[in-house]
Amino acid sequence: MASLLDRKLLVLTGKGGVGKTTVSAALGLLAANRGLRTIVVEVGAQQRLPELFGAAKQDAGRELELRKNLWSISIDPDRALLEWLQALGGRVSGRVLASSGTFQYFGGYDLVILDAPATGHALGMLHSPQTFGAIARVGPIASQTQRVRELLSDPARTSYLAIAQPTEMAVTETLELQDGLQQKLDRTLHAVVLNGTLPRRFSAAELLQIDRLKVSSPVMHSAALAAHAVHDRARSQHNQLARLRRRRFEVLPVPFIFTAELDLTAIELIAGHLSKRI
Predict the structure, then answer these.
(1) Were both Cys, which of 3, 11, 118, 236 would link to 16 (CB 3.0–4.6 Å)?
(2) pLDDT per residue over 229-244, tens digit each?
């Protein structure tokens, strides 16, 4: 994992709601703290990063400096698609397309972190350069799509990370993402970030001791039930972690952050945790 931040592009995707933007922000902080000029690209109109860093939102396609060595930008995929279609229809010149901000995210940065859409949409987006390349076989569009395809298929420059929570459904979608990457891009996942994992707090012997206390009072009975619930949830999560490791994935567990909301302090805690593994 030591070489992960040496890539030019990190693509993060996974099931919706598993914390892709949180992990993107944490990786961006980690890279920036290591002196890499880093930009986190949010796809869509949410623009959560400016809010996390206490900055005003920008128009789509405009870069925003969040702190030293760290920028964010939000892109509108519909606008990007329209630019492609207009270019293919001859209404926008290749020179204009080449200078469009939509396609300039890789210049001037050491690392681009793409906070991609959820799994299915992300695979479609990543496969689109091949589709456009098949349509436009010559000219500036063909050249542009070829460069993008080469970047996405080059393991030395691009890595793919799945973000998942330790649930059966999210892990199953991660396995499907792996299959989709292989089919569409002939690539595999570099790692799986397992977000929100709980530690195993009790051994079997400790649970037996807790059970003996249940009869002492109603409060202890409730406490024992809570302890078992936490233990069972953690065990289920670690079963999902083992499921991924049986498929020989590199798994990066991120602990559950016990805060009312995931603010910048929580993001920094996650970045600090990931720094021990990356």
Answers:
(1) 118
(2) 989 999 999 999 999 9
pLDDT on residue 101: 44
Rounded to two decimals, what is the model's pTM? 0.83
Q: Which domain holds residue 150?
A: 4-200+249-275
Our count of domains for the chain comes to: 1
Which amino acid is it at 278? I
For residue 223, being part of any structural domain is answered with no
